[in-house]
C-alpha cells in the first residue's frame, strides 16, 4: 500500500487524480469511505477524474459512460467494459492505495 494523500484533502464526491507508482488513479471520497478506480474510461481512454460523481457512480465527461464506484462496472453506455478498482485503506487520517490488488 502506498500513501496517496490525507483524507482531509479529499472533498466529498469530487474526483481526485493521483499517480500511484506510475498508475493513474481517481479517488472519490464518500463520507468516511474512499474509492480508487483506474483513471481511464474503458470506452474512450480519457481521464475519469475530469468527470463528475453522481448517484450512479463516476461519469466520463466525454460520452457520459458511468462507472460504479464499488465494482468499476459500467452502468450506462457507450462503455461496456469495467475499469479496475483498487484496494484502499485509511490509516491515521491518510489514504493508502494498492494498485497491485484489484477488487473487481
TrEMBL record:
InterPro entries membership: Rieske_2Fe-2S, Rieske_2Fe-2S_sf
Record Gene3D superfamilies: Rieske [2Fe-2S] iron-sulphur domain
Keyword Coiled coil: no
Stretches assigned to the Rieske domain: 2-97
Coiled-coil blocks: none
Alphabetic keyword roster: 2Fe-2S, Iron, Iron-sulfur, Metal-binding
Superkingdom of the organism of origin: Bacteria
Protein's name according to its UniProt entry: (2Fe-2S)-binding protein
UniProt organism field: Lentzea cavernae
Native organism taxonomy: Bacteria, Bacillati, Actinomycetota, Actinomycetes, Pseudonocardiales
Amino acid at each position: 500500500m502506498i500513501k496517496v494523500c490525507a483524507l482531509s484533502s479529499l472533498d466529498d464526491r469530487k474526483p481526485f487524480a493521483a499517480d500511484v507508482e506510475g498508475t493513474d488513479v481517481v479517488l472519490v471520497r464518500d463520507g468516511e469511505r474512499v474509492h480508487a478506480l483506474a483513471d481511464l474510461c474503458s470506452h474512450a481512454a480519457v481521464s475519469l477524474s475530469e468527470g463528475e460523481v453522481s448517484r450512479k457512480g463516476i461519469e466520463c465527461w466525454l460520452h457520459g459512460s458511468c462507472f460504479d464506484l464499488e465494482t468499476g462496472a459500467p452502468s450506462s453506455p457507450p462503455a461496456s467494459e469495467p475499469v479496475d478498482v483498487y484496494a484502499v485503506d485509511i490509516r491515521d487520517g491518510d489514504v493508502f492505495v494498492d494498485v497491485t490488488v484489484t477488487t473487481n
